[in-house]
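To fix ideas, we close by showing one paired sequence and structure record:
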Amino acid sequence: MEPECDGAAAKRRDKVTRMANHYNVLFVCTNNAVRSIMAEAILNHVGMGRFAAYSAGSHPAARVHEETVRQLDLAQMGDGANRTKSWEMFAWPGTPRMDFVITLCAVAASRPHPQFPGNPILVHWPTPNRSGGGIAGSCAAGF
């Protein structure tokens, strides 16, 4: 049984249902190696089909941070398909149109971004860097 909600909440829910089957969300950080990868995996997991999450970097790293992969595997959210991507690819023809683009770090937020198709809502959601700046000893604790 669904929880009860007031009339206004029901109207908002119905409006959202009519607007889209799901929302496309792009999480952006500079390297696309930790925060944006984790945000993508978490939203795809908890969004239960209401969201399709993607991630990219303004200057992507060569690979996803190994601790990110380990933590996603521990949380049973790792699918082995995580790879770093440039945000430029989400402006290419044929890529999913984003409803939201969320920057997670100040560096990516301050850079000129590509012209994403569909006029997405741009949001900056500052999130601390949990990778410990790449220092192996502090890294696991940061996650």
